[in-house]
Structure formats: C-alpha cells, structure tokens
Amino acid sequence: MNDIPKHLFLRRELEKDIAQLPPHAQLPTERELTARFEVSRMTLRQALGGLLDDGLIYRVGRTGTFVAESRISKDRSLTSFTEDMRTRGMVPSSSLIDAAAEPADDAQARDFGLEPNTPLARIERLRLADGIPMCHEVVRVPLRLMPDILTADLTGSLYDLFGRHFRIRVASSIQRTRAISLDRPIARWLMVPAKSPALQVRRITSDTTSQVVEIATSTYRADRYDFTHLIRRQSS
Ligand code: 16G
User: Fold this and answer.
1) pTM over 0.90
2) Of 15, 81, 173, 194, most Cβ neighbours within 10 A?
3) Cα separation of 85 and 128, whole Å?
4) What is the whole-number distance in angstroms between the Cα of residue 220 and the centre of ligand 1?
C-alpha cells in the first residue's frame, strides 16, 4: 500500500466504512476522522473530495457529510456477483428468470472453442442486492462440462456451484464493457424506465486449465454501479 498516495489509501478505508453504513447516515466530523486515521486535515479533505466526486457521500451546508444512496464500485479482480455484494456489506440474492439448453451459435462456439450447435446451458437471472435489482445476467456454459447444471439450485452463487459440484475453478476473464440504453424487457426487470443508461459487461471466463467455461452478459443499472481500476504507469 506504500506505493499509493495517502489520501487514496484513506479513501479506500473510508469506502469500507461507508459500505457498512445505511444511506443518509452522518459521517463523523473532520476532527474525529483526522484523529482516528492520524492524517492531516488536507489529506482527509482530498479523500472526502474523491468520495464526493464519486457520488458516495454528499454534504449538507455546515450540517455535515452523509452517505449517499449506495452505488457499487467494482475493481479489476475476478470476483463473483455474490462476493462483490458481500464485500460491500450487502446481501446478494437472485431470481431465476429462465434456464434451458440451447445450441451454441457460431460466435458462441468460436468463443468456447467448440463446434457450432454444441449444447449449452443458458441461465438468465436477476441479481439483487439487499432486495434491490442491480443486474440482469445471462450466463452460458457448455453442458458437456456441467451436465446436470440445469437441475441444480441456480439461485445462489454460480461460481460456488462450478467449484463445489463440477470441480471447475474460474481463473481469468476477458471483459468488455459498454454503455447501452436499456430495452424495455431488461429495464422492466431492473425496475427503471426503458432507455435508461446501463453498463453492459461481456465476460468470457476460463478455468485453471485454460478452457473457456462461461460466457456471460451482465447488464448493470448505471445509477448503482461503476468500475474503479488501480492502474500503474509501466516503468521504462
Ligand atoms: C459476475 C460476473 C458473471 C458471473 C457471476 C457469478 C461480471 C461482469 N460478471 O456477475 O460473469 O457469472 O459474477 O456470480 O462480473 P455468482 O457466483 O454470484 O453467481
């Protein structure tokens, strides 16, 4: 942690605290925070400024600083939805919308490295955090690797199920994120107006033996989700 500036480190610590607090809870005063983290007022203000810019907190005149309605921020490690929500102090759940076998189309077959028409399981779910819709997700896996997945309980963590039931451990993903405007059916699941902005992430995941085990399309409400990356300048 020594290689990141103090205020960014503090910001992460404050983010963890904020994740434990309900929306509109008041943060401790500047005096209390500088004493607790043993930082200067300037460092604290920089950290709070970053949180304000990210929309995680808001200020009310001289009254104080408060926790904003929660927005989930995701970093670059390969985590599951369940883990993402739990680390932010929220309770994940899922509603199964549809689960069925279908043949791979040409693009899916290419991404999986399989023949076209190879049977896949298509699992469509609504992912919720503290009971609020956060993400609509369609996951496809080869039935050859996970033969009875369609009869398993699909309302929990899929990555747990991959590991426990099929001994498949996810190791890496290629992800592409794009901004979209929601079509009516998905907007309805996410309980926002049609054409609302959303972040759509397509993930192609490989396991520890480098075989592709999942193609997922996750569509997140843009008002509740963002991606935060720590990036480093390459040393020359
Ligand atoms: C995330 C993944 C998705 C994966 C799911 C597993 C992204 C963009 N997508 O939503 O590919 O299937 O986690 O979560 O991160 P689970 O284990 O909680 O079902």
Assistant:
1) no
2) 81
3) 9
4) 11
The residue among 182, 185, 223, 173 whose CA lies nearest residue 200 is 182
Please state the rounded mean pLDDT for residues 214-223: 95
Structure tokens at 181: 């405007």
CA 23 to chain centre: 19
For ligand 1, atom 13, name the residue with the nearest CA.
80
User: For 65-78, what is each residue's pLDDT tens digit?
Assistant: 999 876 676 767 88
- Break the chain into its structural domains and give their ranges: 6-67, 72-227
As for ligand 1, residues whose beta carbon falls within 6 Å of it are 80-82, 137, 139, 157-160, 201, 203, 214, 216, 218
Q: Which superfamily does CATH assign the domain made up of 72-227 to?
A: Chorismate lyase-like (3.40.1410.10)
Q: With beta carbons less than 8 A apart as the criterion, state whether 199 and 225 touch.
A: yes
Distance of alpha carbon 166 from alpha carbon 157, whole angstroms? 13
